[in-house]
Each structure stands twice: as C-alpha cells, then as structure tokens.
Request: fold
Amino acid sequence: MEFIAALQDRVTPWSDGLEPSDAELNAIEAEMPLITAEVELLDALIVLLDQPPTQIHSRRIRRAHRKVMAARRDAANMSCPVPPAVA
Reply:
C-alpha cells in the first residue's frame, strides 16, 4: 500500500500570516460567553441521549437555554452601537 499524502505537495504553504489578527482574537473573546453558554446547553442535551429526562434535567436545560438567550442578547447589544442622542 502506498501513502498518497506523502507524494503530494502541501496545498497551503505555511506562512507567518496564518495566525489570527488582534481584531479576530478580540472578536473571539467577545463571543466567548455565547460559546460557553452554547456548550453548556449541548452538554445538557447530550446527557439525555442515553437516559430518560428527569425534573433535574429539565431544569438544567431551561437554565442553559436562558444563558444562551442572555448571551445572544448581550452579544447583539454589544455589536449594535448606541445611536447618538438627538437634541
């Protein structure tokens, strides 16, 4: 058996410009509360794949949904600049 990958050139050559910029890192940092809330919701839903739901599971999922919605609201409010006050 021959390894085909060893015979091919790399598609994207490595360069120093492939690292994220400061603006991209700041955007990721701003989205981290939403990302962590969505991961928590996913964890709560994964638990239910192999067992029947209980009241505790329902509470955990509702709490996770509320966190996701609050994080989405906060992210939307941060991305929309506040319009200047009209005199």
Q: What stands out?
A: The chain has a mean pLDDT of 82. Residues 37 and 68 are 5 Å apart (CA to CA). The helical segments are 22-47, 55-79. The two ends are 77 Å apart (CA to CA).
